[in-house]
Amino acid sequence: MPRVAIIGGSGLxxxxxxxxxxxxxxxxxxxxxISVGLIDKEEVAFMPRHGPKHDLPPxxxxxxxxxHSLKQxxxxxxxxxxxxxxxxxxxxxxxxxxxxxxxxxxxxxxGTFFESAPVxxxxxxEPYCSQLSDLLIECCRTMKVNVRDKAVLAATEGPxxxxxxxxxxxxxxxxxxxxxxxxxxxFLARELEICYSAVxxxxxxxxxxxxxxxxxxVMNVGKGVMPTILELLRTAxxxxxxxxxxxxxxxxxxxxx
Length: 257
Description:
Layout: E1 4-8, E2 17-22, E3 34-39, E4 42-48, H1 63-72, E5 77-86, E6 96-105, H2 130-142, E7 147-156, H3 164-172, E8 177-179, H4 185-191, E9 195-205, H5 215-239
Parallel strand pairs: 1-4, 1-5, 5-9, 6-7, 7-8
Antiparallel strand pairs: 2-3, 3-4, 5-8, 6-9
Helix pairs in contact: 2-5
């Protein structure tokens, strides 16, 4: 049973050795098949967030089914990958970012597993697992990769890009980067008491900070940075401690009324 999972999109298919597909059903619908294979000697699960053919837009991803299926196979830690736009002027395309906080501006997505009694209020003072994030930052620095930490990710609904005035608003609220898949994924992982961190790569400057935005540009930058992300993920899995010293595994403790 894999203890670690990677959630991502195109470019990560070759991450695992001798992968097998696991098909599951959940109370929240059918998720994409999970690939389970090896990194070094560690069994790892890979979840294609947008489906195996990348045909689900961010607002149509069944985040609850995706996260619940990973819990079903025994996952305790998740590293997610996200393409993001830079709001912070200091960030440039190609940079890697490990966020420490999130602004949730999604609207249509169901963001909780707790829709009935007992009423549950999960603490997200630390939405991203500090132990896992620290490991990713340490691995980046060991690899001499330019990494930004202590960053705030703004999650927007999509699938359109943001307007320039929306980006100015998000900047005033403290956001450094913006993307469409950070929420509710991080919150659902917390409700399942799974450690969760993210590796974001800056694919472009946000709206109003460059002349125009292009999905082709995002894809091209992603292809360029993908070898670095693959190396980072493999290094992090190889160095991952067996014990969880964070509080993620006790997220529901004292959360229920």
